[in-house]
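Structure first, sequence second, as always.
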């Protein structure tokens, strides 16, 4: 860990992550509370799809709303999971009492959901008090999973 790196910074294979690879849709992560040793497995999208409307004037003079879709970076840098219990402990113990580790970069939403579920099942998060996770909920169709995820290999992205 460098002098400017905090315990709570996102890391991937031991290196601090300040930018996400452009080709990924999101990542699967592990948050660890260094005080209680409890952990949380989750997923985070790298970008959100957003829609805004713009009024345009057509050639005949009529006005029409035009829908414009765009992508915006998510709040991944400051994200502390969707778990209320994790967020409560972050306020209680402070951000530096936690580590945030990226386990897998994923190139599709299907891979993202599959890899999160795979990590949760392999680690038996619902069978242990060592995890904050209290529910596993996922719907994945076979055609939405790439061969990398289906072959039990996580997508390795060079940084």
């Amino acid at each position: 860990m460098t002098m400017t790196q905090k315990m709570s910074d996102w890391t991937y294979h031991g290196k601090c992550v300040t930018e996400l690879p452009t080709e990924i849709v999101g990542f699967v992560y592990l948050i660890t509370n260094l005080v209680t040793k409890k952990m949380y497995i989750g997923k985070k999208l790298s970008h959100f799809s957003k829609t805004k409307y713009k009024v345009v004037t057509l050639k005949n003079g009529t006005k029409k709303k035009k829908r414009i879709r765009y992508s915006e970076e998510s709040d991944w840098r400051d994200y502390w999971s969707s778990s209320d219990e994790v967020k409560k402990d972050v306020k209680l113990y402070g951000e530096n009492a936690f580590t945030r580790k990226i386990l897998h970069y994923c190139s599709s939403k299907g891979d993202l959901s599959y890899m999160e579920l795979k990590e949760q099942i392999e680690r038996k998060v619902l069978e242990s008090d060592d995890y904050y996770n209290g529910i596993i909920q996922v719907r994945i169709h076979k055609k939405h999973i790439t061969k990398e995820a289906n072959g039990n290999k996580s997508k390795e992205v060079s940084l």
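Margin note: The longest helix spans residues 109-122.
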